[in-house]
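I would like you to help me understand the sequence and structure tokens below and explain how sequence relates to structure.
___
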Amino acid sequence: MNLDDHSHQAARARVTLHDVAREAGVSKSTVSRMLDERLPKSDSATAQRVREIALRLGYMRDVSAAALRRGSTGMIGVIVPRLTDTVMAMLYEALAKAAARAGQFTIVATTDDEPDADRRAAEALLRRGVDGLILATAREGSDFTYELAARGVRYVLALRHNGSSLAAVGDDQLGGYLATRHLIDLGHRDIAVLTGPGYATSARGRVAGYHQAMQQAGLSVRANLVVPSTFSIESGAEAAAHLLALPQRPSAIFAINDNTAIGALSTLVQHGMAVPGEISVVGYNDIPIVRRLPTPLTTVRVPFDQIAAAALDLFMAEDVTDADRVRAVAPTLIPRATTARLQE
């Protein structure tokens, strides 16, 4: 038997609402109402009998047909730089779970954080019939989101924002402030920051929080302690090597994310630096591996589940006030073993 024979046989064997209604002796609309998981579950005798008959006959709700009747597919496209980045993988998993709770399904495309790849990824997802997009790839200066809006494509930004679109983010300035304030409270004054890429508002917000904490404490920022980086382990290692080559080394490093912190730690260890005895390090995001490092990393925890829930809420909302267009979720400082009081 070929595949067409199988599919024809499956189509003939598919149990419909009509089949369940005929067996139960009720109308099709009654069966539809009793089996709709989005409605409050009825415990009436009729509802119980309908569910028992549906189970016995092997009825399965045709989600795609129901979505088409509503004018939607129930699919949401998610665009992230890469899934090899633990932060993006955690965000996508959180989005997938939040979508499932809302009766939606997510599919993902990656861009490797290349500017024009956003458009290609979006087109690929839209051709597959997604109802809209959640993007974790917003870049400063890009007009891509304006193109989406002009085409009437529903979209929400996550983790990064552009200041005008609907967005669910962490409060990055608060997180950068908490990380730097923690080091200041431990007595550190020469605190370096590994800045991350300038096109990402998440990185810029954390650097702004660093400057806020330093200014509030009356501490000047040495220009050579503000070191450019990306979000990668390699850039963290290179930035730490730059800091170690300075005539006056910092006593602490705030890395813009956990990957750059891990890279910095690798360089410090290779150079025989004791962490936190000689230098303290703080990361950002609290990815799972950092608590399992030989010296567990002090970091700032980002509540990805809350960001995902806020993104889905914005995506599903029919009307959003101007004051609610950007939802920022508060992060939490997680002190561990890579930070200690400065020894004078």
